[in-house]
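Q: Protein A?
A:
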Amino acid sequence: MSDENLSLEDENRIKKAFKKLDWHEIKSTNSWALFKIMSEFVDGFDKLARIGPCVSIFGSARTTPDNPYYKIAEEIAAKLVDLGYGIITGGGPGIMEAGNKGAKSRGGKSVGINIILPFEQTSNPYIDPDKLITFDYFFVRKVMFVKYAQGFVVMPGGFGTLDELFEALTLIQTKKIGRFPIVLVGKSYWGGLIDWLKNTVLAQEKNINAEDLNLFSLVDTADEAVEVIDNFYTQYLLQPNF
């Protein structure tokens, strides 16, 4: 009996995963996938290597312009541009649009790293035309976010935002990449998650170390978010340099 929660497309994907392929089919399929993945990496590296220091802003694609978090994201982006940073977003609507809009309003570099999805994701109009890149693969896109960002600003969002947040935290925690500031914006939104990390993940199960909770900052305002990033680099006598 079919699970009523599965669409026909889901069922077909499951069946396809169990289908036996001969070597020719495997080799042909994998080879084309590898070429596509390589081309996305090359295109991303080529375009993003020239943009200079940037901050990535994450958050829900569903956030509307009248939402207070949209306004805060737009303000954060504008203030960061005034300090010399460019802005990278996922290139879509919602918080991503707010970030690019804020960067554009100050004449800063406005980068969109878009993804092809069956819903939600269309590029917003505030991205610099030469800095819009569209990917098929989420994992390639995530590499670009981390490799070319000097900081993460994480606004309220859903699964995709959580994915980006924990990807960055894991890479820093395991020392696969250098430390950079991660700022969560919205104490009421993120408070429950942080309480769970402290009380369950750390205190009860001991699945992280106490110092891992210092890998991010929690703020409520645009000024606080920008201050965290600015202070982080000021203490190391580093300045963004376009």
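Q: Protein B?
A:
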Amino acid sequence: MAIKGLGLILSLALIGYLFHSSDLGNAINEAWIDAHIRDHGATGALLFLAMGMLFTACGMPRQIIAFLAGYAFGLLPGTLLGTFAALLGCLLTFLYARLFGRSLLRNRLGKRASRFDRFVHHHPFSMTLLIRMLPVGSNLLTNLAAGISSARMAPFLAASFLGFLPQSLVFALVGSGIAVAPVLRIGLAALLFLLSGMLGAWLYHRHRHGLSIDAQVDAALGEMEHRHPESSPGRSSVDSR
């Protein structure tokens, strides 16, 4: 898990370096980021938010959007804009699933939505925040599952925004470091990524209260050994996932 995350950081840094130092970078970055977003004030920021919303709603990793936000706007503005773009994509996917896609998605995501319901039922804000802090899992599937579940939109979105911030900061730091102190910033981003991932895994282990958001997440975080569905009939909230 950690190796995959570090690989994503290093690959984005390499792509950003190539964009910055080569003709390929001039053709792509200056044709899009530089020509339409960077130094274009509110218009550029709104265009970036629209782009980030659509791409994350369609399943693009929000880390890439944060990376591009850091490249275009710098560390702190990029962190906030990248997070807000991911939140808008989350909202778009959530509303689509809730308003239009319930019948279409119920057969495919019904079990996942049921797990989500059980996971966030008593503490929707804190448990959604816990999900967003995890270093594994699918952002798109979580948004769709939340949309067809009974989860309330306001706490889900508020917790999602806060939960998106740590990784947005990490990847905006990578994007903003392509031209300025790249070794320092990319090294710091790798360290922050590891720390945030360890924190998310520890919080999940500590506060999930025997519940699970996804069996694959449990396996990735080493939680499978704590589940004994065949011998624990009293723990139906876990076993029925």
